[in-house]
Amino acid sequence: MFAAIGKLWFVIVLVTLTFFCGFGFLATFEPTENAMVFRTGYALVAGASTAGALFLLIRMRKQ
Questions:
Q1: Whole-structure pTM value
Q2: How far apart are CA 29 and CA 38, in angstroms?
């Protein structure tokens, strides 16, 4: 029971990180220098946190 609550909090943190990176990714389309580096970084972190959250949710559902 308590392990599932801990995983749920971690999923909430990962989803929050995904939204933050999504906003950052959209903000990089403003005219700035080296925007491609930030786009790549935000996209990688958002993808990893989304994949991690989905993985945890699927594992929680199977238990």
A1: 0.85
A2: 10
